[in-house]
Each structure stands twice: as structure tokens, then as C-alpha cells.
Amino acid sequence: MPRLTLLYAVAALLLAAGRAIPPPEEAARMARFVLHNCDWGALATLSAQEGLRGRPFANIFSLSDGPPGPFGGSGVPYLYLTDMEISVQDLEINSNASLTVSLAQTQYCKKHRYDPQNPLCAHIIFCGSIVKVDDSEADVAKKALFSRHPEMESWPKDHNWFFAKFNITNIWVLDYFGGLKIVTPEEYYSVKP
């Protein structure tokens, strides 16, 4: 009997892993789904660098909201950062930022031949701020990031890496024709991807 139970559990996980993306009328679920299925995003800051001060500056960062799989996502975008990075230097002056994640980095858009700019190749824009995680959340962030980005564990220790999270204040979803949909953080965190 335990073997049969194990087979049912494996079958359920396989079905859940292959589930379709949420429908366009479920914007909060779509936002969670896209974030959980993306491994990186474009983080935009206001530059503090000489010659660019005050101008928008976007950079790519690896991220994770939890281990891969259908049940691992918290919805919180975690990042592994160092003060040596130019965007982190911007954040030290002004922690406000936006973060864009897109299904263009997944097989979904490639399979359907959706251009990354096509609204059907869903992307989510988060606005908020970057904050260092406290000790009570560091293990969660570490598990989330290192499960998806194992290379991070071997990055140079003398770079003083730290775990941070994107503190979401606003969410815009573009997943269908007709314009952006606004999702509140409360709606976002109340659903599962």
C-alpha cells in the first residue's frame, strides 16, 4: 500500500507541475505564477553614479521566491546582493526600485512563439523597495535562492554577500490585450500561483 500511495503522490506532483498558466481574469494568480517560474528579472533603480545621477538604470538580477516546483513559492522576490554591485550602490542612496519578470525567459513563450513584447507572453512589474532580510528570514532567502542558483554558494566570500527581498508596494500585470491590470499586494499574497 505505501508504494501505491507514493505513486499517487508522484502523479499528483507531475500533474501540478504541468498545469497551465492562470487565465487572464486571475491577475493576482498570474503575478504569482510568473514570479515563481522566473529565475531572473530586470531591476530598475535611480542611478547614484556620476554622469547618470537621477536617471533610470536597469540591471539583471537572479531571484527566487522559493524552491522550484508547484508548492515552493512564497511570492517574495529574494535576491543575493553585494555592496560592490553598481545597482546596490544606487539602492543605498534610494531603496525604491521596480522589478520586471517575464515568461519570455521560460519555455512557455518560446513554445507558443510569442515575442517577449506580446501581451500573451505575460510580464509583471513590481514597484517597491529593496530591504536586507533579518536573521529570522535569512534561512528562507538562502533556501529560495540557492535551490535555483547553486552557483551562488561558491561566489567570493570577500564580496560580503547578503540576502535581500523586494518589498512590494504596487503590482502591474500585462498578460492579455487591453492594457495593464493592477493587483494589490494583499490580493497577490492571498493567492497561490
Automatic annotation (TrEMBL):
Domain CREG-like beta-barrel: 22-190
Subcellular location(s) per record: Secreted
Keywords carried by this UniProt record: Glycoprotein, Secreted, Signal
Superkingdom as given in the UniProt entry: Eukaryota
GO cellular component, one term: extracellular space
Signal peptide boundaries: 1-20
Keyword Secreted set for record: yes
Family: Belongs to the CREG family.
PANTHER family for this protein: CREG1 PROTEIN, PROTEIN CREG1
Protein's UniProt name: CREG1 protein
